[in-house]
Amino acid sequence: MARPRLAWCVVLVLSGLGLGASCRNNRVAPTPDGAARAPGADASRPAAPAAREGDVTAIPGIDLADLSSNERESFWTLANEELSTCGDPYSLAVCARDRRPCRTCQPALRFLARMVRDGRSRDDASEQLRLRYNPANAAQVNTTGAPSHGPDDAPITLVEFSDYECPHCAHAIPIIRQVEHDFPGRIRVVHMNFPLSGHTHAMAAARAALAAGRQGKFWEMHELLFTNQRSLETADLNRYAQQLGLDMARFRTDSASPEVEAAIQATRREGERLEISGTPTIFINGRRYELPIERPMLRDWIQEDLDAAAH
User: Fold this and answer.
1) CB 309 within 8 Å of CB 297
2) Tens digits of per-residue pLDDT, 239-249?
3) 108, 133, 251, 273 from 102: Cα distances, Å
4) 203-236 pLDDT tens trace
5) For residues 17 and 119, is the Cβ–Cβ distance under 8 A?
6) Alpha carbons 133 and 274: distance in angstroms, whole number
7) What's the mean pLDDT in 121-134?
8) Residues 213/191, Cβ–Cβ less than 8 Å
9) pLDDT value at position 31?
């Protein structure tokens, strides 16, 4: 039975910048990737400090062709002020220019250039850099028993805390799939159930997905639930199970089993431990992804991680 979406998912606008939408959670979103800058945008920003004597102003492999002159000044100011992402007593710029041992300096500079290009202030770009690369911000996400696909030894592990009734989670599904295609065989995706209390059908849907998984059909049910997100009544869930050719008696038993309930509660507790308050929430190699869930941004983030591993 079709029903209206619950009004728990919001999109706000603040100071002229869109906020990344999520269910009971919001993220600051920069100018969309590839979007044109408004006329005169550079003129409205404070001028960047002039380069100081001894500052690095060119690094092989760092392309700033798509930055305006003022943005380039801001970038080099930050690159010369921010310390190495490995905590060494020299700047990011020196680290990358001199090919110091820290593997994340050059990818971090590319990330910094994107933040400046996308309209972040210098303070905000600096904060995003800290969130992205500070070793203290890496988390150990316990995914034991959670459904996953992709190679176990993939260099990238993308963990998504998700709710089957959250429309922004549904929006993320094709984007994550596209990014998997961008990096074939290099990403392992892990689904973590995090049903929100305001979504009355999310828990039953999570049970149905895990019950289908006990018959080898988790991802097929996962897809059906998000595709038919407005139809998650018990009769709907049973219909999807029949569509997948599941043993219906076993499906009903597993859906109501304490083992399936315990598995959902385990991923929910892990999300609470990680201070997750909304969905979708994504971790990539243990780092919380705080940017809008769009293909170019996810792709760049993953490429930066792969570049760091290759150095």
Assistant:
1) no
2) 999 999 999 99
3) 11, 12, 51, 30
4) 999 999 999 999 999 999 999 999 999 999 999 9
5) yes
6) 18
7) 92
8) no
9) 37
pLDDT at 136: 84
CA distance 205 to 232: 7
- Specify the pLDDT at position 137: 87
Cβ atoms of residues 218 and 190 within 8 Å? no
What domains are there in the chain, each with its CATH number? 46-139+294-310 (no CATH), 148-284 (3.40.30.10)
Of 150, 166, 155, 187, the closest CA to residue 281 belongs to 166
pTM comes to 0.80
Place of tokens 């597993």: 254
Here the tokens at position 298 are 């996810």
Backbone dihedral angles phi then psi of residue 180, each to the nearest 5 degrees: -60, -40
Q: How many C-beta neighbours within 10 Å does residue 200 have? A: 13
Which residues are CB-contacts of 96 (< 8 A; sequence separation ≥ 6)? 59, 61, 62, 105, 106, 109
Quote the pLDDT of residue 179: 97
3-state secondary structure the chain: CCCCCCCCEECCEECCEEEEEEECEEEECCCCCCCCCCCCHHHHCCCCCCCCCCCCCCCCCCCCCCCCHHHHHHHHHHHHHCECCCCCCCEHHHHHHCCCCCCCHHHHHHHHHHHHHCCCCHHHHHHHHHHHHCHHHCCCCCCCCCCEECCCCCCEEEEEEECCCCHHHHHHHHHHHHHHHHCCCCEEEEEEECCCCCCCCHHHHHHHHHHHHCCCCHHHHHHHHHHCCCCCCHHHHHHHHHHCCCCHHHHHHHHCCHHHHHHHHHHHHHHHHCCCCCECEEEECCEEECCCCCHHHHHHHHHHHHHHHHC
**151-172 pLDDT per residue, tens:** 999 999 999 999 999 999 999 9
Tell me, what's the pLDDT at 9?
40
Q: What is residue 52's predicted lDDT score, i.e. its pLDDT? A: 62
